[in-house]
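Lab notebook, bench 4. Still working through the backlog of constructs that have no structural model yet. Next entry is a single chain of 152 residues. Request: give me the structure tokens for it.
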Amino acid sequence: TIMTNLLITLVMGYIAMGRRVGPAVVAAPALCIAMVGIVYHLVLADLREMRGFELLVDHGLHTALPIATMLWWLAFGPRGLRPAHLPWLLAWPLIYTGYALVRGRITGFWPYPFLNVETLGPWAVLANVLGILVLLCVLAAAMMAIDRRLSR
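Model written out:
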């Protein structure tokens, strides 16, 4: 969540400085933050009870920012997303997943329960990762279809 929010901040800051970026540079973090919101609300939201400022920040990071980012992408994102961009769209989540698994193995800290190899075992974690990868591909395909439609 935090790393993806930082990635969005960097990309949006670059755009705010008047720089032009390609469609995959904007679509990749948008896809990732959408996935953060989806996974959070489907899997993680009920694991902790939050109140007050913590709840406000939680909803900002996991609900408001994913929605705002996707709305921005729909309204202003550069068009021209193609299947050839798929590796760029999947790069960040795959790199992070690899990092989280290696770090978890070394330190025993697993950032998400669905990646905890010690508790779930390698095959269950592999199934979880593949399920997320499939969902990412479906969302990426949907973004490409929307992009084509908006390009017209």
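Notes after review: The mean pLDDT is 93. The helical segments are 2-16, 23-44, 52-76, 86-107, 117-120, 122-151. Flag for follow-up if needed.
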